[in-house]
Amino acid sequence: MRIAMIGAGLFAPRHLDVLSAEPNVQVVGHVSPTLKLAAAAAQRYGGRACTRTEDLLRHEEIDAAWVCVPPGSHGTIEQNLIERRIPFFVEKPLAADSEPAETIANAIAKSGLIVGVGYHWRAMDTIPEVKRTLAQNPARLVLGAWHDATPSPAWWRHQATSGGQMVEQATHLFDIARSLVGEAEVIATRASRHARPAYPDADVADVSTALLLFENGATGVFTATCLLNKVAAAQVQLVCEGLLITITQERVAYDAGREKREVRTGNDPVLAEDRAFLRALERNDPTLLFCDYAEALNTHRLCLKVRDSGEAHSAINLF
Length: 319
What we know:
Blueprint: E1 2-6, H1 12-19, E2 26-31, H2 35-45, E3 48-50, H3 53-59, E4 64-67, H4 76-83, E5 88-90, H5 99-111, E6 115-117, H6 127-136, E7 141-149, H7 159-162, H8 165-168, H9 171-181, E8 184-194, E9 207-214, E10 219-228, E11 233-240, E12 243-247, E13 251-255, E14 260-264, H10 269-283, H11 293-312, E15 314-317
Parallel strand pairs: 1-2, 1-4, 2-3, 4-5, 5-6, 7-10, 8-15
Antiparallel strand pairs: 7-11, 8-9, 9-10, 11-12, 12-13, 13-14
Helix pairs in contact: 1-10, 5-11, 9-11
C-alpha cells in the first residue's frame, strides 16, 4: 500500500513511525507548505517532498493518505483526496469551525470512502473495561478537565486557525465522554480571555467551562485552561454509585473507597488506530475503525456548540 503524509507537524512522526514499520506499506510522499520540513520527513521515511497536495497527487499513485495539519488548514486537502477517491485518516479536530467539516462529511457520505479520524483515546486498551463497568454501574456525573500550558505553535493562539482550546485539545475529553456515556446537550457555558504579555496577539479563550446534560441523565462539567506552565490535568472522571473512574492517556484508576486499583495503558493507541485503518482498507470494512468521520463530526459539533456558546457568555479582561 502506497501512502502519503500530508502535514509535517509534531504529530505526523507519530503516525510515520508506525506506518514505516508496517509490512506492505510504503511511504511515497510528504506535503508541507514548508518544503524544508517535507524534505526532512522524506529523507527519514522515504518518498517525495512537496509543498502542495495537488503536486504530490500529480506525481505519485496514492492508495491512502494521512492528514495531520492545523485545524484551519482543512478543506481543500480532503476535497482533493475525495475527488480522486483516495481514502484517508485525518487527525482531530476536523476543522477550526463548522463549514469545512460539514462539507467534507457530505462529500465522504456521497463517495462511500473509508475515512478514519484520530481520536486515539478510543483506541486505548483500558477503555473496554471502562465500558463493561459502566454497563453495570452507569455514570451519574462526568467531569472533564484539560488544564495545560499554551502550546508553542503560533496558529494555536488564534481561533481562526486552531478553533480554540475546547475544539483543539479538550475535544478528546468530549469525544471519549460521548463514546462512553452517550450524546449530550449544552446547558450553560462561559469563556474568558485575559491580558497575557507573552501572547499579546492571542484571541482564544484561556479559561473555558461548560455544563452538559447527557442522554442518560448524567451531568457533565468540563473545564479548560491554557494559563499554566505545564499540564496539570488532562482527564475525564466518571462518578458512579460508590465508584470514581479517572481516565487519562496513561492509566485508568478505579476508586471505590476502601478498594482502589489502577490499570495502566498497555498499548500504543496511535499504532492501534493506524492498524485499524489499514485493516479497514484491506477488508473494505469501515466498522473496523475506532472512529469514522461521521462519528467524529458529532464530537466536533458538540465542541463548537460549547465554544460558540461560551463566546456569547464571555468575559474579556485585558487589564
